[in-house]
Structures are given as structure tokens and as C-alpha cells.
Design a protein that fits this description.
The chain is about 85% helix and about 0% strand. By secondary structure, the protein is mostly helical.
Length: about 180
């Protein structure tokens, strides 16, 4: 009744598509690093459309579950409004994303310092290094904010895509070996 593919076929297909995805991610990452303003704009548009979709879905579920739920409608209108604002005025959206990343890095620095301050933890220097690196990245975002967001977001997204692609490519190569 159920026709499952063999384990070797699954690993071979998964490995092939992981390697292909890895190459695409590496290329996108390199493009993002070389042209960070375009990657920043693409990221802002992607986030805007995700928020727009979330607002529409929230409105739909508020409509079908409880039309009188004003908090559900408020959430939907805020998501749609912010998404439209980010699409119509992309620089404000880019500045907001940059500020959110700076806040994230400061929170990550705080967590890293807190973990490093725990007495019996082994490898606490790694937590301290992570805290210092996150603090430096947060300060880097705040220096010349909001203008620095225009290129920093693209560079960070590009670097992330590059390394994700590298890991996917290596993982895809390993999956082919596991399947055999």
C-alpha cells in the first residue's frame, strides 16, 4: 500500500538538493556582501511582506472566530499598517530593522556576560568572547544609525547566507556518503 523510497534514494536526493541549495545560498551571500544595500532592501521587503501576510491572516482568523474581538483587529491593523509603512517608506523600515538588530546584539552581549560570570562554568571565556563580540556589533549598528543600517543589514544577511550555504553544501556531500 505505502511505497516508501529506499534509504539510499532518500539520502541521495536530499544530498543533491542540499548541495544545490548550498550553492544558491553561497551565491546569494556573495552578492549580499558585494552589494549590501540591495540585500538590505531585499531583506526589508521580505520582512514587510511577511508582516503583511501575518496581518491578513490575523484579520482572517479574527473574522472567523470572533468578529467583536477588538484586540485581534488591532493586531491585524497594526501588522498591516507597519508593513505598508515599510513598503511605502523603505528607509524607515531599514532603520527600524537596524535598531532591532542593535537591541538584539546588546541583549545577546548581556546574556554572554551573565553566562561568563557564573563561577563554575567551563569555557567561560567563550561566553565572554561572545558577549564582547555582540557588544561590538551592537555599538557598530548604533554608530551613525540609521544610515549604517543601509549597508550593515545587507552585509550581515550576506555573511549569514554564505555560511548557511557552505554548511548545506558540506552537509549535502556528507549525506551522499551516508547513503552509500
Amino acid at each position: 500500500m505505502w511505497n516508501y523510497p529506499k534509504k539510499e534514494e532518500i539520502f541521495e536526493k536530499l544530498g543533491k538538493y542540499a548541495k544545490l541549495s548550498g550553492v544558491i545560498f553561497i551565491i546569494l551571500g556573495i552578492i549580499g556582501i558585494i552589494f549590501p544595500t540591495y540585500m538590505t532592501l531585499a531583506t526589508e521587503i521580505f520582512v514587510s511582506y511577511l508582516m503583511l501576510l501575518a496581518g491578513v491572516v490575523a484579520g482572517y482568523f479574527t473574522w472567523i472566530t470572533d468578529k467583536n474581538n477588538w484586540l485581534g483587529w488591532l493586531k491585524s491593523f497594526i501588522l498591516v499598517g507597519v508593513a505598508l509603512l515599510m513598503l511605502l517608506y523603505p528607509m524607515s523600515g531599514i532603520a527600524t530593522i537596524g535598531l532591532l538588530l542593535a537591541i538584539y546584539f546588546f541583549m545577546d552581549a548581556f546574556a554572554g556576560f551573565a553566562m561568563a560570570s557564573m563561577h563554575p562554568i567551563k569555557g567561560r571565556w567563550l561566553w565572554l568572547f561572545n558577549g564582547l563580540l555582540s557588544l561590538a556589533l551592537g555599538v557598530l549598528f548604533l554608530i551613525n544609525w540609521p544610515f549604517s543600517s543601509m549597508y550593515l543589514i545587507g552585509i550581515f544577511v550576506g555573511i549569514s547566507l554564505f555560511f548557511d550555504g557552505f554548511i548545506l553544501f558540506i552537509g549535502g556531500s556528507q549525506l551522499k556518503k551516508i547513503g552509500k
